Amino acid sequence: MQSVELTTNNRYVHCVRFEPESTAKATIVIAAALGVKQRFYQPIARWLSEQGYRVITFDYYGIGQSVDKPLKQIKSDIIDWAELDITSVLDYAQSCQKGEPLIWLAHSLGGQIVAMAHNANKIDKMVTIASGTGYWLKASKQVRRTSWLLWYFAVPISTPIAGYFPGKRLNMVGDMPAAAMKQWSRWCRSKDYLFDNISTEQKARYKAFSAPISAFHVTDDELLQRANIENLLAHYPNADKVLKDLSPEMTESNGIGHFNFFRSQFKESLWRKNLLEALQVN
C-alpha cells in the first residue's frame, strides 16, 4: 500500500495504490460515492490486489484525505471532481500500467460523472455498484420521504453558516465543499438529474463513452430503484451494457443496501462470485 499525492490543476488529490505480488491482471480505479472517503473502499482494494489486480483508491478534492486547507476555503464542485480530479487520477493510473486493461470500479456518484473526464476514453471497462440517476421523486420511498429536509432546510441553512456542508455533524452525507453540495442538491431536484444541468459538450462525452459497462443493482438499496440504474445507463448510448441484480438472498446477510457491498462480510458471496466475473475484460 503506497500513498500518492497528485497536485495538478492547483488541486490536491490523495490516492492509495495497492500492488499485487505478481504482474497485474488489470489496473482498477475505485471511484467513491458522494461524501464517502476512500478508506471505506480499502478492504476491497486490498482483497482485489490479493486476486492479482493493481488497485487505486482516491478522495475527490475536499473529501477525506484530499484536503489541503480549511474546507470552507475549497471551492470545488462535482463537475470539477469529474473534469479535473478524475482526469488526474486516470492519468496517474495510466502511468502505472504495463499493458494491462484499465477498469473503473464505481460506486454511485463514481459511475455518474466519469464520462465528463477528458480522458475517460482510456477506460477499458466500467463496473458500477448502485450507480444511477438521483432525481428525488424517482428515487426510493425513503428518499422521497426524507430528502425534502435535506434540500430545503439542511443545505440552505447550514451551508452559509459553516461555509461548507457540515454533513458529519448533521449525520447527512458527510462534510463537503459548499459548491459541491449545492450542485448535487440542484441535480437531485432536476427531473433528469445532472443531465439537466450540464453543457452540450459535456453530454457529448457520455455519447462518446464506449467502454463496456457491467452494472449492479442492489435489490434492497434504500436510496435508488432499478429504474434509476437503467436511466443512468441510457445516458451511455454507445456502450455495451449488462445490468445484474444483487439481492440479500445471494448472501448470508439480512441486507446489502446502498453501501454495504464494499464490506468484507461479502467477500465470498458478492466479491468472489459476482464482482470477479464482472471485472473480466474481453
Task: Explain the overall architecture.
This protein has 282 residues and is α/β, with parallel strands linked by helices. It has one domain: Rossmann fold (3-Layer(aba) Sandwich), CATH 3.40.50. Helices cover 35% and strands 18% of the residues. It contains nine helices and ten strands. The longest helix is centred in the middle third of the chain and has 22 residues.
Helix-strand layout with pairing:
Layout: E1 2-6, E2 13-18, E3 27-31, H1 42-50, E4 54-58, H2 78-96, E5 102-107, H3 109-113, E6 125-129, H4 141-162, E7 164-166, H5 167-170, E8 175-177, H6 178-188, H7 200-208, E9 213-218, H8 226-234, E10 241-246, H9 267-278
Parallel strand pairs: 3-4, 3-5, 5-6, 6-9, 9-10
Antiparallel strand pairs: 1-2, 2-4, 7-8
Transmembrane segments: 148-167
Pfam family, one: Hydrolase_4
Domain Serine aminopeptidase S33: 24-150
- Taken in chain order, the helices and strands follow as EEEHEHEHEHEHEHHEHEH
Q: Based on the structure given, which CATH architecture is correct? A: 3-Layer(aba) Sandwich
- The tally of helices reads 9
The best one-word shape is globular
Largest sheet descriptor:
8 strands, mixed
CATH topology: Rossmann fold
| Whole-number tally of structural domains | 1
InterPro entries: AB_hydrolase_fold (IPR029058), Hydrolase_4 (IPR022742), MAG_DAG_Lipase (IPR051044), UCP037442_abhydr (IPR017208)
Domain Serine aminopeptidase S33: 24-150
Protein name: Dehydrogenase
Keywords: Membrane, Transmembrane, Transmembrane helix
